[in-house]
Amino acid sequence: MKQLLLQIFTWWNGETVGTRFFTWRNGTFVGEDEFGNRYFRASGTALGERRWVVYNGYAEPSRIPPGWHGWIHHTVDVAPSDESFTPLEWQKAHRPNPTGTPSAYRPKGSALSKGNRAKPCGDYEAWSPEA
């Protein structure tokens, strides 16, 4: 029962009932990546070919590898499962979004970082209300 309610009311945690029905009705399975995300396509829609991903777990778009990213955004026509895709040297492996974790970027002077913010330079004049 809990899984059914999660599918109905949460779009960020796997696929919803609507996506599952659309995938069952119109989707053609194209392939799966190393994270377990599954990719589908539907031809003959009013907008042409439609491509989508069903995430394995939490929906985080940065978990799409470079080859699949190009395919899902219609940059390339051939899916990585249909060819031997090798990432280019500048294409980095996935790194989870660190926002809200201890490894998040915190600039100098941030309330959560160590150190003090640099003093303002001479062209800054603080505003003070007239008393």
Could you write a compact summary of the structure shown?
This protein is α+β, with helices and mostly antiparallel strands. 19% of the residues lie in helices and 15% in strands.
Q: What descriptors fit this protein?
A:
single chain; 131 residues; alpha+beta; three-stranded antiparallel beta sheet; 19% helix; 3 strands; elongated
How is this structure best described in words?
This protein has helices spanning 2-9, 17-26, 66-72, and strands spanning 28-32, 38-45, 48-54. It is built from three helices and three strands; from the N terminus they run H-H-E-E-E-H. The chain has a three-stranded antiparallel sheet, sandwiched between helices. Strand 1 (28-32) and strand 2 (38-45) form a beta hairpin. The protein is an alpha+beta fold. 19% of the residues lie in helices and 15% in strands. The radius of gyration is 23 Å and the shape is elongated. The termini are far apart.
Strand-helix topology:
Blueprint: H1 2-9, H2 17-26, E1 28-32, E2 38-45, E3 48-54, H3 66-72
Antiparallel strand pairs: 1-2, 2-3
Report the end-to-end length measured between terminal Cα atoms: 64 Å
Rg over alpha carbons: 23 Å
Query: How many strands?
Result: 3
Question: Helical amount among residues, as a percent range?
Answer: 10-25%
> Can you give the mean pLDDT?
81
**Number of helical stretches of at least 4 residues:** 3
- Helix-strand pattern, N to C? HHEEEH
- Quickly give the structural class: alpha+beta
- Principal-axes geometry comes out as elongated
- Uncertain stretches: none
Strand order of the largest sheet: 1-2-3
| Major sheet attributes | 3 strands, antiparallel
**Portion in beta strands:** 15-25%
